[in-house]
Specification:
The strands form five sheets. An eleven-stranded parallel β-sheet has the order 1-2-5-8-11-14-17-21-25-28-29, with no helix packed on it. Strands 3-6-9-12-15-18-22-26 form an eight-stranded parallel β-sheet, with no helix packed on it. By secondary structure, the protein is mostly beta strands. The N and C termini lie far apart (about 45 Å). It has six helices and 29 strands. The protein has one domain: Pectate Lyase C-like.
């Protein structure tokens, strides 16, 4: 009797709906099929209790909802107060329903408070905004929203840093909108606004879908292992040089990297590098991504450290647009084959079958 038959019989006998999400199912090359593919491979909790992390299944069994409204009509007026109400060692999903408006707060979710969801109205998205800078707090702690806890999710939320645009002269002008350092985090239809260092994709397994991220220098940086699907990366004009990513993988044995699949790079002027070797083993791949002419023909930067050309992993696969021409790329660009691209084109890249759920529905 094969293993598959045993699983089916076990499920029938015990009346447990069991769906084994296929982490290896490749993202379709046709973008119009992406949402259907996602629904097939990231099914709701009820279908997957036998495959998800046990702590996640327990947490989702009895979710709690907290309403936050700037006008005082909710349980709290500020997100900070809502977070304070969650006990340390929290074991249940807490959905924080954010009413429309600006939440001018510097928010931190400590590691002791996992299973938090921020949810906003897609037609009137709430805005989390603060103006902290590296000079005030240090770069990574300048973020308007800092998430250190595991199993965080945000749906239909705008996160911004309102600090002035760095002019290249004033020290410490970097200003992060979001730092995500918890493991197993997801972002659906979220928008991130900033200039230099907009998103600190710090560490852990992360998933971004249908998002928008804009910036100038290193506006996606960190040492997480993250999959970005159908996300727009917008290069703000006005600088002579722009850098989309600064991935911080420090050794060949480190299992981190950024994979951008069916994304869109917007802007103009041929000023943007797809990434730089901030750390010696940086790993970034773009696949099925549309690149406007904002992308510099060379594509990638060795960060004035030519020795990193032998250690970085900067790959491209089946991309399109004026900025995707490979003939002008630096010689350390990896022009991926079907086999070479395969590990970056599935949910297995972030072990999603064990933790990733569809966006919260209210």
């Amino acid at each position: 009797m094969t293993n598959n038959i045993v699983l089916i019989i076990f499920s029938i006998l015990f009346f447990i709906p069991l769906v084994l999400a296929d982490d290896n199912a490749p993202v379709p090359a046709d973008k119009s099929q992406l949402n259907r593919w996602f629904r097939q491979n990231v099914q709701p909790l009820a279908s997957r209790k036998g495959t998800l992390d046990a702590t996640l299944v327990t947490a989702e069994a009895n979710p709690k909802t907290i309403k936050v409204r700037v006008d005082g009509s909710g349980n709290f007026k500020t997100i900070t107060d809502a977070i304070k109400s969650i006990p340390d060692g929290n074991t249940n999903r807490v959905i924080i329903l954010l009413g429309p408006g600006n939440y001018t707060e510097k928010i931190k979710i400590e590691r002791t408070k996992p299973f938090v969801t921020f949810y906003g109205d897609p037609k009137n998205m709430p805005v989390i905004v603060y103006g902290g800078t590296a000079a005030q707090f240090g770069t990574v702690d300048s973020a308007s929203l800092i998430v250190e806890s595991d199993y965080f999710s945000a749906v239909n939320v705008i996160i911004a840093n309102s600090a002035p645009r760095p002019d290249g002269k004033k020290s410490g002008a970097q200003a992060v909108a979001l730092r995500i350092g918890g493991d197993k985090a997801s972002f659906y239809n979220c928008k991130l606004y900033g200039f230099q260092d907009t998103l600190c994709d710090d560490k852990g397994l992360h998933f971004f879908k249908d998002c928008y991220i804009e910036g100038t220098i290193d506006f996606i940086f960190g040492d997480a292992k993250s999959l970005y699907l159908n996300t727009e990366l917008h290069v703000i004009p006005g600088d002579q040089l722009a850098l989309i990513t600064a991935q911080a993988r420090k050794s060949e044995s480190s299992d981190t990297g950024f994979s951008f699949v069916h994304c869109t790079i917007t802007g103009t002027g041929g000023i943007a590098y797809l990434g730089r070797s901030w750390m010696p083993d940086a790993k970034v791949v773009y696949a099925y991504t549309y690149m406007s002419d904002v992308v510099q023909p060379k594509g990638w930067s060795d960060n004035l450290k030519p020795e990193t050309a032998n250690t970085v992993f900067f790959g491209e696969y089946a991309c399109s647009g004026a900025g995707a021409k490979l003939d002008g790329r630096v010689n350390f660009t990896k022009k991926l084959t079907d086999a070479g691209a395969k590990p970056f084109l599935s949910l297995g890249f972030i072990k999603a079958s064990y933790w990733l759920l569809p966006p919260t529905q209210i």
